[in-house]
Amino acid sequence: MKNIDKSKDKISNMFNSIAKHYDFVGHLLSLGIDVGWRKKTIKSLEINNQTRCLDIATGTGDLAIALAKQNPLSIDAFDISEGMLAIAQKKAKKKKQLEKINFIYADAEEIPFPDNYFDVITIGFGTRNFYNYKKTLFEIHRVLKKGGQLRILELTLPENKFGKLYFFYLYKVMPFIADKITHAHFYKYLPESIHDFDQGMVFMNQLEKSGFGKGQISRYSFGITTLYSVEKCTVLSGVNDVVKDLKRDVKIYNNAV
Question: What pTM does this model have?
Answer without folding.
Answer: 0.89
